[in-house]
Amino acid sequence: MTTRTTRTALALTLAGAMGAAPLAALAQEAETAPGATTAPAPLTAAEIDDATLAAFADAVVAVEEIRASWEPRIAEAETADQQGLVEQAGNEMIAAIEDTEGLTLEEYVAVNEAAAQDPELAERILALLPEDMRMAPSNG
Questions:
Q1: What are the alphabetically sorted keywords of the record (predicted)?
Q2: Residue 21 belongs to domain spanning
Q3: Residue 9 belongs to a domain
């Protein structure tokens, strides 16, 4: 997976939390970008060790804090300025993930994708999050 494709996948994942529709255009751009490669097969829960899950949970907390700080600014901004703010927020989130000990950006994306497909893995991750961040995964 190229760095641009990985960053785009992550941005789209984070955009869901931020309600940032403008990132859909970025996904389309990544799909057609020169040098874009097909993503490797997603990880399964059995391939993700406890240390990686703990690091992922730490990164989720950091990303959520950044999302919470940016969301009001983005919502209050002029429409023309929102895309730039979303990109700034996404860059901060990526930096926070990359700064998480024991986790790469690619691993973060892979664990996130695996958890989206595996409710049991999602529950394991939720158990590692602070209580105020826990909410049941959606079934749909």
A1: Signal
A2: 3-33+47-133
A3: yes
Token pair of 52, please? 């990686």
d(CA 78, CA 88): 15
Which pair of tokens denotes residue 4? 């641009």
Determine how many CB atoms are found less than 10 A away from the CB of residue 109: 23
Q: What total number of domains does the chain contain?
A: 1
**Is 140 part of any domain?**
no
pLDDT along the chain (140 residues), means of 10: 46 47 36 49 82 95 93 92 93 94 93 90 91 64
Give the long-range contacts of residues 84-92, CB within 8 A, separation 24 or more. Answer: 86/15, 86/18, 86/20, 86/22, 86/23, 89/14, 89/18, 90/7, 90/10, 90/11, 90/14, 90/15, 90/23, 92/66
d(CA 118, CA 11): 21
Q: Is residue 72 part of a domain?
A: yes
Report yes or no on 25 lying in a domain: yes
